[in-house]
Every structure is written in C-alpha cells, then in structure tokens.
Design a protein that fits this description.
Blueprint: H1 2-30, H2 44-61, H3 72-93, H4 97-128, H5 135-147, H6 149-152, H7 157-160, H8 164-172, H9 175-182, H10 191-196, H11 209-239
C-alpha cells in the first residue's frame, strides 16, 4: 500500500509538470500575439525575446515545486524543460533555415541559464526563511524591477552613467541585456527605445555571452550548495 501511494504521488507530480509545461508553451504562443498586430513590422528577434521572457516568467509562476521541498535535480530538470519550450517556440518564429539551429540554441541556453538562476536563488532564500510561500513572488518582483532597470532609469541615465563603464554596470545588471546579447539583438536601439530614451546616442556594449553564462551558472550552483547546507542545519537542529 505504501509503495502504491508513493507511485500515485509520483504520477500526480509528473502530471503537474506536464500540465505546467504545456501551459507555459501555450502562454508563449498566445500572450506575445498581442504585439503582432502592429502597423510597423516587429523584428523577429524582438518577438523571440518577448516569447522567451514569457516562458521564463510563466515557468517561474507555474512551477509545481512551490508546493513542496524541491530537490536540486528538479531545478535542473524544470529549467531544461523551459529551455526546450523556448527552442520549440523559437522554431515557430524563424522562417529562414540558416538561422533555425543557431537562434533556437541561443534562446534555449539563455532561458535555461536565467531560469536556473532564478529558481536556485528562490530556493536558497526560501530555505533560509523556512520556505515562506510568499518569497517566490517577492523574488519575481525584484527580478522584474532589475530587468526593467534600463527602462525606468532612462531619463537619468546620462547623469547617472556618463561614462561607458558606469553605463555597462547599469545595462548589464538587467537580465534582458544578457538575453539580447545572446540573440545578437540591440533592443536599446529599436524604434521605441530610440524615440523615447537617450540610449541611441550613447556608446555601450552588451555583456560577453560566455562569461555572463558561466557567471550565472556558477552563482546558481553556489546558491544550491547554500540551500543544501541550510537544510542540513535545519535537520540537525530538529534531531537535537
């Protein structure tokens, strides 16, 4: 009976993962469609960015592990499935076979790295705070604020970051700049940003793709190690 109960629980868990994954893909297909009916054609790389961001956010919100104590393996697996979803959605956007493999791979890597970091950070914080269920929403709000940093700091960017090094600190703090760099898309010089922000007149570079990826993965692994240590300390204290 105990084995059957565990098997039933595992089956329900897998169903939750599959349902959440399909909802993420559905959201990536449907939500960005709101921006497709524009008078001016939207660059396909911009569409890919919107869909990738949608997958990361929905994948974070719909993660079934928020209801239990997730393992390190579940973090990797869920991030991998989100990366796979981004690759499938990217393939539906690209019509040139020469770009198909490269763009889908770059998008998948970026989505995996960002998702892996967000989930690792959230689990580390939740472990330290005894798995407070409000923590994921606070983390998501903080990441959104950091992602939109170049947008809401635009009116003061020339005074706050008058030199390229300071400007790079401002721009590279945004995960969106990493995603744009992975896709080789200068989103800060698209039509809307060019008309409403001063970035079109400034000199800047996007972060190095490999170094940024290695840095985020390294921090994610460190956060997972911290999470494990905290859980072990909690278990030891409970046994005393």
């Amino acid at each position: 009976m105990k084995v059957a109960g565990l098997a039933l629980h595992a089956g329900g868990r897998y169903q939750s993962y599959i349902l959440a994954w399909f909802l993420v893909i559905l959201g990536a297909y449907s939500l960005p469609a709101l921006y497709s009916n524009q008078a001016v054609p939207v660059p396909f790389k911009a569409v890919i960015m919107v869909k990738a961001v949608t997958i990361i956010v929905l994948g974070f919100i719909l993660n079934p592990d928020w209801q239990s104590r997730p393992s390190r393996l579940s973090i990797v697996i869920w991030s991998f499935f989100l990366a796979l979803a981004s690759a499938l959605v990217t393939i539906s956007v690209i019509y040139e076979n020469s770009l198909l493999i490269a763009m889908s791979t770059k998008t998948a890597v970026a989505v995996f790295v960002l998702s892996f970091f967000m989930h690792s950070l959230t689990r580390a914080v939740m472990a330290q705070l005894t798995y407070n269920r409000h923590i994921p929403w606070n983390i998501l709000c903080a990441v959104i604020m950091l992602t939109t940093l170049p947008l809401w700091m635009a009116p003061w960017v020339e005074s706050i970051a008058p030199t390229p090094p300071r400007l790079h600190v401002l721009l590279w703090s945004s995960p969106l700049s990493y995603l744009a760099g992975m896709l080789d898309y200068d989103y800060l010089r698209n039509q809307w940003f060019y008309q409403h922000t001063p970035y079109g007149m400034l000199r800047y570079d996007y972060p190095d793709k490999i170094l940024y990826s290695i840095g985020l993965i390294g921090m994610s692994l460190l956060l997972l190690a911290i999470k494990t240590n905290v859980n072990l300390e909690n278990n030891n204290s409970e046994n005393l």
